[in-house]
Design a protein that fits this description.
- The structure is a single chain.
- The chain has 8 helices and 10 strands.
- It has about 300 residues and is of the alpha/beta class.
- The protein folds into 2 domains: about 180 residues, Rossmann fold, CATH 3.40.50.1100; about 110 residues, Rossmann fold (3-Layer(aba) Sandwich), CATH 3.40.50.
- The strands form 2 sheets. Strands 1-2-10-7-8-9 form a 6-stranded mixed sheet, sandwiched between helices. A 4-stranded parallel sheet has the order 5-4-3-6.
- The longest helix has 17 residues.
- The relative contact order is 0.17.
């Protein structure tokens, strides 16, 4: 039988690059996985494929059914791509706190959107909780399956391949992983994969300084889209992380601009936060070591925001 290749088969096996211009002198090498090379331009394609395929296998998502989720946009775009390719519909809960590009991209993939208004376009604990509640309500309709990324145990497995790819592409030279936290699926999946190869790999989590709840601080408002929920993710496993670093929204935005200008890597603010923290770890580790981090998504999703409009 002729093999037919779907866009879903293009997910993964993304390139890895070394940061050649902003890495600290005398510090560790920093390598970044270009997850912006996935079909939607985001690492979340990996999660979406895994949880949708497994839900279908378990009979939770019926043929032609509707995938429901609350999203800052990135996961929604990835779910819309995979769902569309596999014959499902999508209904997402979104907010004006997130970029317009994400809204129109989800719409382009055929997603139905329900909005929850934010407080001055700020990302807060209250906003996320209201979005979750609305998604739960929508999912009660017949033929609807709630992906519920925060509590979906299959999520981390979607990133095991990402960790294995990093290990192979660095020829087994990874001393530390530095990565931001939203649901915690990606940092745990990548970290678990790396530690299957090297148990003593350091895993450093990154969160917004304005809402450093992983560090034990009270929740607050920030503008690093896609991370920093304002509460501990239900599937967060602190024992799998060696350290948590807080990065401010201003520093994350500035680094996103630097990456574009100095490394020609066009990425969003969560990637900026990743690299700010990776620089700190690289300085501490010193030469002949390697720090791995992730280019989470493309900067094309943030052109309507102030990230690339403010001076560097």
């Amino acid at each position: 039988m002729e093999h037919r290749t779907s866009v879903v088969d293009a997910i993964g096996n993304t390139p890895i690059v070394e940061l050649l211009h902003i890495a600290p002198p005398g510090g560790a090498r920093i390598v970044a996985k270009l997850e912006s090379a996935n079909p939607t331009g985001s690492m979340k394609d990996r999660l979406a494929r895994t949880i949708i395929e497994r839900a279908a296998d378990k009979g939770l998502l019926e043929p032609g059914g509707t995938v429901v989720e609350y999203t800052a946009g990135t996961t929604g775009i990835s779910l819309a791509l995979v769902a569309g390719a596999l014959g499902y519909r999508t209904h997402f809960v979104f907010s004006d706190a997130f970029s317009a590009e994400k809204r129109w991209t989800m719409r382009a993939y055929g997603a139905q959107l329900t909005d929850v208004r934010s407080d001055g376009q700020r990302i807060t604990k209250e906003l996320i909780e209201a979005m979750i509640a609305k998604a739960a309500e929508i999912s009660e309709q017949p033929g609807h399956w709630w992906a519920d990324q925060l509590r979906n145990e299959d999520g981390a497995d979607g990133y095991l391949g990402l960790g294995d790819e990093i290990w192979a592409q660095t020829n087994g030279r990874v001393d530390a992983l530095v990565h931001s936290v939203s649901t915690a699926h990606s940092i745990h999946g990548i970290g678990r994969a790396l530690r299957r190869h090297r148990p003593d790999v350091q895993v450093v989590a990154v969160e917004p300084a304005e809402s450093a709840v992983l560090s034990g601080q009270p929740p607050g408002a920030h503008k690093i889209e896609g991370i920093g929920l304002g509460f501990l993710p239900p599937l967060w496993h602190p024992e799998e992380v060696d350290e948590v670093m807080a990065v401010s929204t201003a520093d994350a935005k500035q680094m996103a601009r630097r990456l574009a200008k100095e490394e020609a890597i066009f990425a969003g603010t969560s990637t900026g936060a990743n690299v700010v923290a990776a620089l700190r770890v690289a300085e501490r580790l010193g030469p002949d070591r390697t720090v791995a981090t992730v280019v989470v998504d493309s900067g094309l999703r943030y052109l309507s925001t102030d990230v690339f409009r403010d001076p560097a």
